[in-house]
Amino acid sequence: xxxxxxxxxxxxxxxVLFCLVLCAVxxxxxxxxxAENREYKIKAAFIYxxxxxxxxxQEHIEDANTIVIGIIGHNLFGDAFKxxxxxxxxxxxxxxxxxxxxxxxxxxxxxxxxxxxxxxxxRACHVLFICSSEVEYIxxxxxAVKEYPILTVSEVxxxxxxxxxxxxxxxxxxxxxxxxxxxxxxxxxxxxxxLLRIASRVIDEESEPEK
Amino acid sequence: xxxxxxxxxxxxxxVYFVMLICVFVMLLAGGALFVFINYTYRSSMAQxxxxxxxxxxxxxxxxxxxxxxxxxxxxxxxxKSKPSVVLVEVYTEEWELFxxxxxxxxxxxxxxxxxxEDGYYFDADYLTAFQSITLDGERIGTLMMCSDMxxxxxxxxxxxAATLCVLIAGLFLAYVLSARFQHIISxxxxxxxxxxxxxxxxxxxxxxxxxxxxxxxxxLIDSFNHMLEQIKxxxxxxxxxxxxxRQEVQQRKRAEKxxxxxxxxxxxxxxxxxxxxxVSSHDLREPLRKITSFGKLLAESLRNKINKDERENLExxxxxxxxxxxxxxALLSYSRIGTEKMGFSxxxxxxxxxxxxxxxxxxxxNKNAARIEVREPMHMVNCEENQIRQLIWHLIxxxxxxxxxDTNPEIIISSIxxxxxxxxxxxxxxxxxxxxxxxxxxxxxxxRLHLRNEYKGVGIGLAVCNRIIRKHGGNLGVSSxxxxxxxxxxxxxxxxxxxxxxxxxxxxEETV
Lengths: 211, 512
Hints:
The complex is a heterodimer of chains A (211) and B (512). Chain A is an alpha/beta fold.
C-alpha cells in the first residue's frame, strides 16, 4: 500500500526511513519483552528440570498423581510453562497453581499468615516459586511452609539464608542458580548431586552462608 | 620328494599319519578357539563400551538438561582414563552437537557413522556406541562413543602368535612321542617280516616266530606259525614220498632189467626153437624120402607076390609116409615164416586178393560154381607181400573147402579201417560154420575138427595164418554160426599213399 501507485509521489527515501524507524522501535521494544520472556522461559525449563533432580519423601499431601507447582506473587512466567505443562514427571501430571502473594493482598499487614496468603493452598504444593514481588514477605512464606516437603525456589537475594532451597541469581547470558543443602535437608528433600555440580553455589553446614 | 604313500616304511607311515592327524586336529581346535576368543573379546568390548556410554550418559543427564557445557565437558574428560576411547560426542535431542571429547591418541580424523539407534557398531577401525541420554525416562540427547580397535588387534596378534607357538610345540611333541612309541605297532610286524624273509631264504621251515601280544598281530603270528607247521609237514611228507618213489623207481628199474634179460632169453630160446623146428623138419625129409621111395619100390616089386591084405597094409604104409611128408612140409613152411627175413612194403590189398583168386582158384571156382566178391576199394596195407598172399590163399581155400553140401559157396572179402592205423580185412563165407566150443582150437597146429576123409588137410593152414599175422603185429580172429557160415578177420597196419614210405614194425621178435 505504501509502494502502490506511481501517482502517490511520497518520496521513496522517506518511506524507507519510516519503515526502518518502525522496525527499530519494535525491535527494541520486543527485545526487552523477549529478553524477559526468555529469562522466564529458561527459569521455567530449569524448574521443570529441578523437579527431575529432586526426590520428595514418600508420604505427601493429597494427590499421588500430580506434582503441584505453585507460583506465589506477581507471575511473570506467562506461558513459559506451556512446553512442559502436559509432560509427565515421575509418573505424575504437572499442575500449576498461581497464588496471590501478600504484596498483592489487602491484608498484607496482618499478623496471621492465613490472611496474607492462601497458606493451605501453598502447603499443598510440591514446588513453590516465590516471585520477586514478594521479597518482603519471604520469611513469612517460608515460615508457613517450613515443616513441609516443598521445594522453595525464588529469585531474590538472600533467599537461601532465609531458608529457601534454590535461588536464581543473574548470570552472564542465562540465569544461574544456587542451592542450600541445609534448607533441603530441613524440607526432607533429596537433591541429586548432579544438580549440585552445576549450581553456581552450594551451601552446606560447614560453609558460611554468603550474602 | 614324491614318494608313493605305500612305499614308505611302516614306522615312518605311523609317524606321518599321527603328525597329520595332530596337525588337522590342532588347526581345527585352534581355529575354533580363535573364533570363540574373537567373538568373546568383541562382545566383551561391546559390553564395555555400552556400559561406559550409559554411565557417562547417566552422569551428564542433568547437566545436559540444564545445557551446562562445562559440566558435560568435565564428565567427558573423565574418559582420559580409558585410552581406547578416541572420540565422544554429545548431541541434543535435535541432533545438534552439544559437546565433544577427542583423545590425544587419535591420529586421524574419525568419521563417525550416521546417526543410528542405540546400540554398538563395529567397523574396520572403530567400535562405536550410541546411547540416549535420558532424564526421568525423557530423552534429552544422545551420546556417541568411539573406541578404537587397536587393543583388539594387538590382542588378536598375540593370540595368533601364541597359537602358532602352541601348534609348533604340539607338532614337535607329537613327532617325538609318535616316533618313540610307533615301535609298539611296527616292531612285531617288522619281526614277522624279517622271519618270513629269512625262512624263505633258508628254506628252514622248523623256525617259529614268538608271539608277544594278544592282539591281531599276535593272531597273525599264530597263523603264520600254523602255516609254517603245515608247510613243514608237507615238506617232510614230500621228502618221504620222494624217497619211497625213488626206491620204487629203482625196484622197477631192476624189474625192467630182469624183464629185458628174460625177454632176451626168451627171444634167444624162441630162435633156437624155430631153428630147431626148421632144421628138424628139414632133416626129417631126407629119411622120409628114403622110406617113401623104397616103400614105393617095394610095393611095386611085391605087387604080384603078396595077397590083397598085404597089399592093403603096404598101401597104408605109403599113405602114412605121404601124410608125414605133408605134415613135415607144412611144419617146414610154418617155421619158415618165423625165420625168413621179412621185407615190408605198401601193398594194395585189392590187387593182391584178385591176383590170388585169378591165379590159384579159377579152376575151383568154376568147378564149384562159387562166387567170390571182392568189395572194392580195399585199403593199402604195410606188410610182407608174399606172406599175406599166403594168408589170403589159406583163408579162401578154407572157405571153398568147407562149403555146405548143397550150397554154392559165396565168399565176400572186404576191408575197413579198424582205427586210425589199422585195416581190418574180413573173409566171409556161407560154409558149414564152426561150433562155438571149437572156436578157440581152430588156430592150433595140426588141430582138425573133421576126419581126414571128410575134408582134406593137415590142420596147419590157420596156424600158419596166425603166425603170419602175429609177425605183422596184427590180430586174427573168427566169428561163426554153425551151419550158416564163418567170418575170418585179421588186422594189418595201414599204409600211406606214397609207396616209398616203408613203416618198420616195432621189433617184437628179431629177424634173421
